[in-house]
Structures are given as C-alpha cells and as structure tokens.
Amino acid sequence: MPDIRHTPEATTCTRTLAPGESIDAHRHDEHQIIYAGSGVLAVTTDAGTWFAPGTRAIWVPAGCVHAHRAYGHLALHLLGLPPDTNPLGLGAPTVLAVGPLLRELILAFTRDPHDDTPERLRLRAVLLDQLRASPQEPVQLPAPTDPRLVAVCDLLHDNPADPRTLAALATTAGAGERTLSRLFRRELGMTFPQWRTQLRLYYALRMLADDVPVTSVARHCGWSSTSAFIDVFRRAFGYTPGTHNRRP
Questions:
Q1: Could you give all domains of the chain from N- to C-terminal order, each with its CATH number?
Q2: Cα separation of 67 and 245, whole Å?
Q3: Which of 115, 135, 215, 226 is buried most deeply by CB count within 10 Å?
C-alpha cells in the first residue's frame, strides 16, 4: 500500500487548481471543510466520490484518507477545525448546502488565515452556527466492491449515456437482475436508477466546468432531452446548468 501523506493540521487557506489538477491522498488530524468558489471539486476516498459545485461544501472528518481533483479552474477554500469541533457530528465525508451567508463567511475566514483578532473569533463563531444549520445533500457516488457490481458500474463510467436496463447490464456481469438490484441497495445504499442519476450528474458537472454546451452535456450523459437534463440538474443543485459557470 502506498504511503499516505499525513498533515497533522488541516490548513486554513485558499489556493487554485488548474483543470485536471489533483491533490494526492492524504489525511489530517483535524476536520476540514472544502469549498469550491469556482469550478467543480471532487473528493475521493475508498468509499466513493463526493462532488460539489459552488453551492456546496464537502466536510471531511479528521483521519479520513482523501484526495482532491479539480474540474474547471478551481478556487479552493480550505478550512481546518480541531477534532473536538464538529458542529454536525459527522463521521464520514458529507456534502453540505452553502447559502449566500455561509459562502461569504467561508471566503472571509479563509482570506487571512493568520489573523487572530477578536473579530475573527466572532466570525468563526457565526460560521460554525451557519454550519450547524446547513442541510446535508446526497451528492455522492459510492464505490462498489462486489466484482459483479464493479463490472456494471465500470461500464457506466465508461459511457454514462449507456441506455441499457439493469437486466440487460446484468448479462455482462454474470449476475441476475435481482442479485444486482440487491447489491446496489446493500453496498451503495441506493437503487440502480438513483446511482445512475448520481453518476450522470457527476459527469455533467465535470463537462459543464469545461464549458461544454448544455445540449451536448445532456446528450453525452444520457438524458432523453435537454429539458429533462435541466429539470434533474435544477432539482439536484438549485440552479440551471446554463448558469453554472456564471455563478459568483
């Protein structure tokens, strides 16, 4: 197993990542909030991938081995919190909704991480209050372990637009439809249609971050029409895909 970089403190800072740039697997003794001011952020662990546009942040608990990857030009805001400061009591990576106020608090707090004034302490207290009120979002792509499930998921990663039903995909994996359906629920915590929708949204965000037109994204990710894609995307992220790269 490769050595995992261990950074005791989860540094509070801002940094930029170029499209496709990544940060190798590492862990912290502190919790970390990771927010993408622009672009799309993907955080990956052995359990799967969590992805977030600018309306979301990703909570990574202390000790969790994770890697980052940028899609589009990523403005990354990293905020470290001590192990005893866990406003939502979260023990696994989680995507959190970020409203306008929380967004501005994160930007302000990470802008000057070495400022220890009383004003900054008050800012931190308000930020933690906002985190406690942040809804958790099911924006995750769990990773399978059963070889039959891996085979099916790999086919869809290779071609998110693959229209085949689970029954048709099952024939390529050497398993029955019912077996695969049970595996999706047991291993990934969601149904096959739910997982495929998450997969398509993940690839849609990646393509939008690279300025691919909405109609092309809808087609390449398997939606039956552009309007169907827009509807699913809006319900998942709260805005339309056409405004993705124009958001503040």
A1: 5-140 (2.60.120.810), 144-246 (1.10.10.60)
A2: 24
A3: 226
